[in-house]
Write a structure and sequence with these properties.
The protein has about 425 residues and is α+β, with helices and mostly antiparallel strands. It contains 6 helices and 23 strands. The protein has 3 domains: about 90 residues, conserved putative lor/sdh protein from methanococcus maripaludis s2 fold, CATH 2.40.420; about 100 residues, Efflux pump adaptor protein, beta barrel domain (Elongation Factor Tu (Ef-tu), domain 3); about 150 residues, Helix hairpin bin (Helix Hairpins). A hairpin with a 6-residue loop joins strand 13 and strand 14.
Length: about 425
């Protein structure tokens, strides 16, 4: 009975609650919950906001697509040029030499300076020639008076002959004597002018405006002529070249001669541009002024001359330059950047971009100017690839990585 009562009391009294967990365990669980919540929130933010901040193109990238830069073919105008190597040639070149023997007394020019027509250059001792001029003047003066005297005698003889005071032979002799004296006076005039010219050659002046070279003679040098009295047997006294304007002589193939001559006959002015050896820097601009009168049979070329103002002295005599002769201008042609054209042997092709892929198209190339090429085989407005050619194939998927750049931007001439 007692055992039953105890059992009933035990059932009525509840069991004591379990002891609470240690405080450190509750904190650890809370920390883990917070960390998981932060991680989930960060992942959501990265996925949601990160995608919104990406460029639009990156969301359109097709898996396995080739990223390419592009351009657009445009319709425009381009020049047809003939390129050749030319030599800068002065319009005038003068090697100054002495025309008389003598001692150099003065050199008036400075090496490399611009001299103008008539400027003094070199003086040769004039005293021997001044003496010759003085002597010729005296001879002329004497003979002039002799001639005048003979004419007076002739008038007297004519009066005497009219009175039958002298024989006819005496009158005739006097007439011939007057003619002889007249001839002697003319000869004296010639001698005087010759010695005056000799005296003038002692004072050497610039024959035209140009640049003079290095000094080749000094005061105190003696100028000696050859026996023929025509050539300086020592050296030139100076060299002058005209540099403003100046010309460039270049050659073109005889196959192109007909087209150039046709343009010249029609009155067209053909521009010529001079570039440096690397064809990178423009030196000067001029115009075609002359075509040679024959073809060089050994090379099959003909010489042309272009004239440049050269006001800045950019062109130097005997300098080698690259020339570009503009023959004509093509209008309404399709222009694309030259770097968009690829070659497979002798075949030229481009990659046209449409429907998200690159499509190989064969083109026929033409004139090239300023990084632009005239082509046939594609239409204006076609989008073309300009990079990643090592990865491109026909029908390969592509993704443009920037807005297409119109062909002709920069140097191209697009109407």
């Amino acid at each position: 009975m007692e055992e039953g009562q105890r059992t009933l009391e035990e059932q009525q009294d509840p069991a004591p609650p379990p002891p609470p967990p240690p405080p450190g365990k509750k904190h650890r669980v809370l920390v883990w919950i917070i960390m998981l919540a932060l991680a989930a929130g960060g992942y959501y933010a990265v996925q949601h906001y990160g995608v919104l901040k990406r460029p639009q193109a990156s969301r359109l990238v097709t898996p396995g697509a080739v990223a390419v830069t592009t351009t657009i073919a445009k319709r425009g105008s381009i020049g047809v040029y003939l390129e050749a190597i030319g030599t800068v040639t002065p319009v005038y070149t003068s090697s100054i030499t002495a025309q008389v023997n003598g001692l150099v007394t003065a050199v008036h020019y400075i090496e490399g300076q611009i001299v103008h027509k008539g400027d003094p250059l070199i003086d040769i001792d004039p005293r021997p020639f001044q003496a010759q001029v003085l002597q010729a003047e005296g001879t002329l003066q004497r003979d002039v008076n002799v001639f005048a005297q003979s004419k007076m005698d002739l008038e007297r003889y004519r009066a005497a002959w009219a009175r039958n005071a002298i024989p006819k032979q005496q009158l005739d002799d006097q007439e011939k004597l007057v003619l002889q004296n007249e001839g002697q006076v003319k000869s004296d005039h010639g001698n005087l002018q010759f010695f005056q010219v000799q005296l003038g050659w002692c004072h050497i002046t610039a024959p035209f405006t140009g640049r003079i070279g290095l000094r080749l003679v000094d005061p105190g040098n003696v100028v000696v002529l050859s026996a023929a009295n025509q050539v300086n047997s020592t050296t030139s006294l100076g060299v002058i070249t005209q540099t403003q304007p100046i010309t460039v002589v270049f050659t073109i193939a005889e196959d192109n001669l007909g087209e150039v001559r046709a343009r010249v006959r029609n009155g067209a002015t053909l521009p010529v541009t001079a570039f440096d050896r690397a064809l990178e820097s423009k030196i000067a601009s001029g115009v075609l002024t002359a075509i040679d009168n024959q073809v060089d049979t050994t090379t099959g070329t003909v010489k042309l001359r272009a004239t440049f103002d050269n006001t800045d002295d950019a062109l130097f005599p005997n300098q080698f330059v690259n020339t570009r002769l503009l023959v004509k201008t093509l209008h309404g042609v399709t222009l694309i950047p030259s770097n968009a054209i690829q070659h497979n042997g002798q075949t030229a092709f481009v990659y046209a971009i449409y429907d998200g892929a690159a499509h190989m198209q064969t083109v026929k190339t033409g004139t090239v100017e300023g990084g632009m090429t005239a082509v046939e085989g594609i239409r204006p407005g076609t989008v073309l690839a300009t990079s990643s050619f090592e990865r491109l194939q026909d029908n390969a998927p592509v993704t443009p990585i920037k807005k297409p750049v119109p062909a002709g931007k920069g140097k191209g001439r697009i109407p």
